[in-house]
Amino acid sequence: MGLYILRRLGFIFLTLFLASVIIFIVTQFLPGDVARIILGQFATEAAIDNLREELGLNQPAYRQYLNWAGGFIRGDWGDSLVSRMPVRPIVMQRLGNSIMLAGLALCIYVPLGIVLGVIAALKQNKLPDQLISGISMAFVGLPEFVSGLLLITFLAIGAGWFPANSSIDPDAKFFESLPYLILPAVTVSLTGLGYVARMTRSGTIDVLGSDYTRAAELKGLPGRQVLVRHVLRNSLLPTVTIVAMGIGWLLGGLIVTEAVYGYPGLGRLLVYGIQRQDLPIIQAASMIVVAAYSFSNLAADIIYGLLNPRIRVGG
Amino acid sequence: MADREPVLKVENLTITYDTEKGPLHTVRNVSLQIAPGEIYGLVGESGSGKTTFARGVVRYLPSNGKITTGRISLSGTDLATLSHKQIRKVWGSRVTMVHQDPNASINPSMLIGDQIAEAMRVHLGLNKKQAGQKAIEMLNKVRMPDPELVARRYAHQLSGGMLQRVLIATAMATNPEFMIMDEPTTALDVTTEAVILDLIRELMSEYNTAILFITHNLGVIARICDRIGVLYAGELMEEGPIHEVFRNRLHPYTRGLLGCVPRVDASKKSITLSSIPGFIPRPNQLPPGCIFAPRCDLVEEACQLERPPLVEIGPSHLSSCRRVDCLRTRTKEVEQAREERIEELGPVVLEARNIKKYFPFSGGLTALVRGKKSVKAVDDISIRMRSSFTLGIVGESGCGKTTLARCIAGLEEATSGEIDLEGEHLDYSVSRREPAVLKKIQMVFQNPDASLNPQLPAGYSVARPLTLLRNMSKKQVQERVKELFAAVSLPPDYIDRLPHELSGGEKQRVAIARAFAADPVLMICDEPISSLDVSVQASLMNLLAELQGTAGTAYLFISHDLAAVRHLSDWIAVVYLGRLWEIGSAEDVFVPPYHPYTEALLSAIPIPDPDIEQDRIRLKGSVPSALNVPPGCRFHTRCPRKIGAVCETEEPPWREMEGGHRICCHIPIDELKTLQGGGLLKKAGQGGNR
Amino acid sequence: MQKQPQENSENRMAIKKFFRRLRSNPTIFIGFMIVLIFLFIAAFGPFLAPYPYTQQNLSERLQPPSDDNIFGTDQFGRDIYSRILVGSRDVLVVAGSGTVLAVFFGLLLGLFSGYRGGYFDEVVMRVMDVILSIPPLLLAMVILFSLGPSRVNVIIVVGFLYIPMVARVVRSVVLDLKTRQYVEAARLRGETSAYILYKEILPNVLPHLAVESSMRFSYSIFLVASLGFLGLGVQPPSPDWGLMVGESRTWFHQARWVLFFPAGAIAILVVGVGFMSDGLRRMLLPGGVSDG
Question: Is there a single domain that holds both residue A122 and residue A185?
C-alpha cells in the first residue's frame, strides 16, 4: 500500500512537471512576443527591448522556464500585468471560492447520482430505469451555460427564489454567500449527476449479474443484506475512481458556470486573464487547476486502495 | 438407500423461458428422487438443460423463466408453490448450492470467515461470535489448513482448490437437507479435483445430505455418485444405479457418451473413439418422435413417430429407448478396432535442448525495492520429436507446458536453449524465421472462440497460409481449400461462413484445416479439445489421428486431460514446475514404475467406470509459485513418497530404463517398482465392460 | 465469384436487423432521428433560411417570435431562425472535423502503441496521460489564447484534445486483440505487422471506434459550444450557437427568445448525439465495457 501511494505520488510530480512545460510553452512562446503583448501595439522598440531584458526574455528557453518554474515553486508567482498586484493572493482567494462551489456541488451530485444509479440498476429496463437513464443521458450532454441560463430564467428571474447573479464579494464568508452558491452548484451538479448515475448503474448491473451475488442470494440472505454487503460494497468501489475522473469535468464546468453567474472563482479569473492577456494570471491559475485535479485523483486512488482488499492486503 | 423416504421428489417438472421467438420448454417432464445421503449425478452435454433444471428445482430462475408444470417436494414442502419470501427462507438453510467457478462465487471484498458465517447468522440465529467460531469449525471440517488464518483472508489470497473448500464449508454450515453441486470441480486441476471429490464423499456420509451433482464429466460421476440420470435436450434418457447404468448402458445416448471418452488402457493405435454425429436439438426444434432419433445409430421407423416414455427396464433402472432389447444383446461395445501399425521410427523432426523461459516479474519501483525476480516458467526442458509421432505433454495448469510449446513455435522467445528443426537451427522468435521454416510449424489453439477472426469468413482463414506460404495460384487455392474442408469433414458451403455461424467444434475443425493448409511437419496442439463437449472431443481426436496417418505430421499434444493424452500420444512427457520428471512411451508411463508425480496424476484421473478402483494417492497443498521454486527436488513439498532430507537439498538424478523410459527421482527404479506394485489401474478389465 | 449475391442478402439482413433493433429502443431511435434531422438542416440550412444570417434591421431589434420571424430577432434585428439554420453547419463542421482529426490520429497512435508495445508505447502513453491530466476546457482555452480564436484553430484544438482519449480506447482494444489466437496464427505463418494490423486487428477495432467516435462527437459539440459561449471560439458575426447564447446574456432579461432558441438547439443536438452514441454502444458492443 505504501509503495502504491509512493508510485502515485511519483507519477503526479512527473505529470505536474510535464504539464507545467506544456503550459509554459503554450502561454509564453506560442502567442509571440510577450513584451509586445504587455506593452501593447504602440510601444516603442526601445521600451520593448528594455522590458525583454527585465523579464529575461532574451535568455534561452530552458532558462526562462527554470526561472519561471523556480519562482513558482518558491511562491513568487509574478505580478498581474493588468492590476500590477501580486498574483498569488488573488489566485489563492479565488481557489478558495471555487473549492467552496465545487464542494457544494460534489455534496449534491455524488450521493444523488449514486442513489439514482442504484435504483436504475435494480429496476433494469423497467420504467424507473428508462426515466433515470434518459434524464441522466440528457444531463450529461447539456452544456452548463445552457442549463445555467435556463435555471436563471426560471428559478431566479421567473420565480425569484434565487439571485440571478452570484458576483459576490470575493472575501465573503461561506454562510453569507450560500444563497448565491446554490444555483451555480446545481448547474455544475447536473452534468456530474448524470455521469455518476450512469456509471453507478452499469457498475451495479455488472455486480448484480456476478456469481457471488447469485451465491449470496442462494444463501437466503435478506434482500437488503445482499444489496448492501455483496452488491454495493463491490459496485461502488469503481464509483470512487469515477468521481475522481469526473473532477476534470467538474473543473471545466466550473469555468463555464462561474462565467454564467459571474461568480468570483478560479474559472472566471482564468477567463478574465485570457480576455486581458494577463499572462501570470493565466499561468498560475492553470497550474493550480492542474494541481488540484492531480491531487484529487491521488486522493481517489488512495481511497480506492483502502477500500479494495486486493490492493490493501497485497495479492 | 432408495427405500428410504426421499428428501427431494421432483415430478414432471417442465421449465419454460419466454423469449422473443415464443416460449422455450427447456426442461420437459423430468422426474427424479434423491434420498438422504445419496449423491445423484445428473450428466449432460452443454445445452442439455442441466443447469436450468437445477435452478428450477430451487426456484432460482431468471425473470423470463418459470415452472410450467410439475411438483418439487422437499421433505413434504412443495417448493413450486412457495411465495418468494418463503423460498428465501428455504435457500441457505434447507437447500444450498455449490457453484462451478469458485473464484467468481466468493465476494472479493468480504472476509472468508464472514461469508461462511452470514448464512448461519440469518438461518440459525447465531450471534456474530458464535457464527465466527462455527465458521472456523466448518473450515476445519473441510480440511482447510490454518482455518483461523483463512477465515481472516480475502478471496484473492486463496487458491482455487481452497476457495472450493470454502464454498463447500459455506454450503454445509447450515446442515441442509439437500444440496446442489453444479460442476464443482470443473475449474480445478485434476489432482485438486480428486482431493475435493474425496472430501465431498466423506462429508456426505457424515452429514446425510441429499445431493444433486451436476457435471459433464462421466468419470467424476463414476467416482462419486450413487445414481445417475442422463439428461439430453431437456429430457431424462436413462436413470439408474451407477453400476447398472455404466455396465449395461441401456440407452444409445449413454452408450454414445461413454464411447466418446478415451480410455487409459488403449490408444489411437488400437481403437477409434466412437462419436455422436449431429447436434443437440433446440427446444423449439424437437423431432416428433424420440428426441435422440436423428443422431441414433439404432434408429428405426417407429422411433421417429412417437416419443417413447421413460420406463423401468430393470431394478430401479429406467430408459426411454424403445430398442432396449436390442441394446441388451449388444451389450459389448462394438469397438472399432484399428489395425496395429507396425512401429517404425520416423526421422527426427524437432530437437529442443535445454529450453528455458524466464519471465521478468514486475519492473519499475517494485523491482528496486524487492530486487529483480523472474518467473521460471520453463526451466531446462529437452524434447525430441519424430515424424508421424505424437509427443503428449501433461501437467497441471501453470506447469509451463504451454510456455514450452509457445517457445518452440516462436511466439514466445526462449531465454536460452537450442531448437533444431529437421537438423537446422531455429531462431527463437517467429518474426526472424524464414517463410520456408514457418510453414513447417503450425499450431492449433485452445479457445475455439478466439481462434478465428470474427470478421473474416472461415475459408479465408484457411486460404491465407496457402497463398502466403505455398505460393499457390488463386485457382489452386480454391481447390485446396475445398479439399481441406473435406478433410476436416466440413461441408463446402462452410467456406463462406463467418465464425459466429459455426459451433465450437466446427471452429476448431477450421483451425485444424488452417494449420494443415501450410503442410507442416510439426503441429503443436495446445489443449485443442479441452473446452468442448465429450462427443465433439472424440470426433476431433479421431480427426487428428486420421490426419496424422495420412500426412505423417508430428504432433506436440498438450493437455491436462491424461486420458486424451494417453489416447493420442506415442510418447508422454510429464511436466511439473517448469521441469520434466518423466518421459517414455505411452504404454510405459502408464504402468509402474512411474514418477511419484505421475502416480498421483494417474490416481486422480476420473475414470468413467465405477467398477475400477483406483489406489488413492493424493497431493497435499497446491503448486508452489514459480517465483519461489523449492530447492532440491521441486516436487518434494507435495511428494507422497518423499524419502527424506535428500529430496529437499539435492536435485534428483535421471534414471533410465528399457525403451528410453526415464524418470527423474531420488528413489531407485527397483524401489519404485516395489512401492507401486501392480499399478493403480490393476483392476481395469475386471467386471463390466472394461 | 459466386458468393456475391449471398453477401448482398447478408448485408440486407444486417441492415434490417439494425433497423429492427433501432425501433425496439425508443431513445436510440430518437437519437438517430435527431442527428439525421440536424444533418439535413446543416446540408440545406442556408437554402431554407428566409433571411441572410447577417442581415441587420435595427428598427426590428429584439422582436418576439412572429409570422415574419418565427424565432424572433436579436439585438441587431437579425432573424434568429435563419441564424440557427445557418449556424447548424458551423457546429457540425467544426465539431465534426475536430472529431475526425482526433479519431484519425488517435486510431493511428493507439494501433501502433498497442501493437508494438515496449518503450514506444510507454512514452506515448505517458504523454497521453499528462494531456489527460489537464481538464480539456482549460487546455482548450489556453491553447486558443495563444493560437488566437478562429474556426480552424478551434478544429485543431478539439482534435488535439481528444486524441489521447481515442488513442487510449483503441490501445486497450488492441492489447486485448493482439493476444487472440487468430493474431498468433497470423504471426506463425509470417504475416507482416502491417497485414496483421490492417486485416486482423483493425476490423475488430472498428465497432469500438465507432462508439468512441460518436461519443467524442457529442463531447466536441459540447466543447465547441462552451468555447463559443466564453467568446474564445468562433468569433462574431458567425452564427455559432454557443456564441449566440453568450451574446444573449445581455438581453435575455427582456427578450427570452434570444436565449431559448439557440440554447434549445444546442441542447437537442447534444442530447440527440448522446442518445445515438449510447445506442451504438448497445448495438455494437453488447455486454461491452462501460465508458470512461
Answer: yes
List strands edge to edge, sheet with B373-386: B373-386, B348-361, B416-421, B424-425
- Interface size, chain B vs chain C, as Cβ–Cβ contacts under 8 Å: 60
Task: Determine whether the interchain pair B443/C191 forms a contact, defined as Cβ–Cβ distance below 8 Å.
Answer: no
A152 part of a folded domain? yes
For residue A313, which residues of chain B lie inside 8 Å, CB to CB?
Answer: 154, 157
Query: Minimal Cα distance from C180: which residue of B?
Result: B450
Contact B442 C190 (CB under 8 A): no
Q: Is residue B331 scored above 80 in pLDDT?
A: no
Same structural domain, A199 and A238 = yes
Task: Report chain C's C-alpha Rg in angstroms.
Answer: 22
Same domain, A32 and A110: no
Q: Which residues of A touch C248 (CB under 8 A)?
A: 149
Flag whether residue B455 sits within 8 Å of chain C, measured between CB atoms: yes
Q: With an 8 Å Cβ cutoff, is B409 touching chain C?
A: yes
What pTM does this model have? Answer: 0.85
Range of the domain at C79: 74-286
| C227, closest residue in chain A (CA to CA) | A256
Between chain A and chain C, the number of residue pairs with CB atoms below 8 A apart is: 144
Chains that touch B (3 or more CB pairs under 8 A): A, C
Q: Which residues have C-beta within 8 Å of that of residue A93, sequence separation ≥ 6?
A: A170, A171
On whether residue C65 sits in a domain, the answer given is no
Residues of C in contact with B405 (CB under 8 A): none
C196: chain B residues, CB-CB within 8 Å: none
- Which ipTM did the prediction report? 0.84
Task: Flag whether pLDDT at C239 surpasses 70.
Answer: yes
**pLDDT for B285-305, tens place per residue?**
888 889 999 888 888 888 888
Q: Are A17 and A123 found together in one domain?
A: no
Cα–Cα distances in angstroms (integers) from residue B503 to residues B85, B231, B447, B510, in the given order: 41, 21, 12, 11
Domain match, A60 and A107 both: no
CA pair distance C55, A39, nearest whole angstrom? 38
What CATH number should be reported for the domain holding residue C162? 1.10.3720.10
Report how far residue B615's alpha carbon sits from residue B676's, in angstroms, rounded to the nearest whole number.
10
Domain containing A22 equals 2-74
A191 and A139 within one domain? yes
In a domain, A84, yes or no: no
Find, among C10, C192, C1, the residue nearest to B464 by Cα. Answer: C192
**Are A124 and A265 within one domain?**
yes
- In chain B, residues with a C-beta closer than 8 Å to the C-beta of C182 are 450-453, 461
- The nearest CA of chain A is from the CA of C206 a distance in Å of 23
pLDDT in tens, B596-621: 999 999 888 888 888 887 778 888 87
List the CATH number of the domain containing A225: 1.10.3720.10
Establish if C13 belongs to a structural domain: no
Is C220 within the bounds of a domain? yes
One domain for residues A65 and A206: no
Nearest chain B alpha carbon to C193? B431
- Check CB contact of B511 with chain C, cutoff 8 Å: yes
Distance (Å, rounded) from C-alpha B196 to C-alpha B185?
A: 7
d(CA B132, CA A133): 42
